[in-house]
Request: fold
Amino acid sequence: MVKKLLVFFYLISFVVVVKAQVVLDSAGRDPEYVKTILIRSQKIIDGLNLGSLSFKNEVTTIVANRYFQLNDIDKKFGADKTAHAAELYAHHFELATALGNYLTADQIEKIKDGMTYGVVPKTYEAYLEMIPSLKDNEKLQILNWLKEAREFAIDAGSSKTKHAWFGKYKGRINNWLSKRGYNLTVERQEWMKRIENQKKK
Reply:
């Protein structure tokens, strides 16, 4: 029993040490750029109600360091698409792993959405409103594809590239829905009518 307690307290102390090692990777970077990234990162986590300031600072640092890392990869491998893609993949899961030491799965989802302009929840909600007759399995497929797009978008270096990934997957979703018998032109027109009618009320 005593040995188990010792191991337990050792593991707790180890986690604390690991968390304390999160340092802002700002050395050699333009101070204004660092400031911009910190503000952007802070805005992303502001709505999570993380509690203590030190805890929020740790999470903010993790997110900011991710932006720095993506910028470094773009600078180093931007001209070589194959090497660039390989480097992004090699580091892709590090963000979620690092955040997992501090946050719940739902909170990590919200950070991913924050880093990709909230496209997943906004687009998913739009599909539900546009096609009220969607079946549960169709809703799930749409959501899964949007989240898959987000995994690519979160590694993109610019807002244009991020939105391009979502555009690609929206095309896939639309084609899939058309093959399943949905007339998206009609569905969209009816949706617009419902919106206009709602405004008149």
